[in-house]
Amino acid sequence: xxxKAKKEELFADEILKWHKDxxxxxxxxxxxxxxxxxxxxxxxxxxxxxxxxRIFRDFLQKYPSFRELASAxxxxxxxxxxxxxxxxxxxxxxxxxxxxxxxxxxGSLPLSKRQLEDIxxxxxxxxxxxxxxxxxxEMPMAxxxxxxxxxxxxGLESKRARARDDSEIWxxxxxxxxxxxxxxxxxxxxxxxxxxxxxxxxxxxxxxxNGICSYWGKTSSRR
Length: 223
Hints:
Layout: H1 4-22, H2 34-43, H3 49-62, H4 66-70, H5 74-81, H6 87-105, H7 113-118, H8 124-135, H9 144-154, H10 167-175, H11 182-195, H12 214-220
């Protein structure tokens, strides 16, 4: 088994290599517009990227900035985003968040973690996502799927009921981000966790990093 530092380096290298060949283009990943990046993160909550991709261009055309979204007709917004589910809660959040950004920051999204997390509806994950994508900041986009990938590969056990509430695992994930590659690495982990290191029926035998994976080492020994 590779040393801890070597394992982290191999993990990053292989995930990035895999993603270079497998990555899928999404409109919110191909933009440097803070508005598009943030609203995409809100729309992506508790739904799939495929579902969001089906409505995202229409959403941006109808509501191209925080100002338009802040003054949106609630019923029309709900109708547009209804395919995603949770449209009442989601529309309330989008409008309220946009009004706050317009009132406090003149419609321009602040790009500091403290200010972002101070905005209603923006938590640590969303703030990290915005900064990783727009600033290439070395901050982890550690959702449930990514944390599953990290804990499996590195054999980590959370001290909390949910790994996403474990600050130590978040810190570990931040620590393995390759310098200058935060955006690419975060997207790679999200896609890898979604298509290979799945919650159910993970594709371990096809996984390019199973040679350094603690989870595979344990499960394969029982076969």
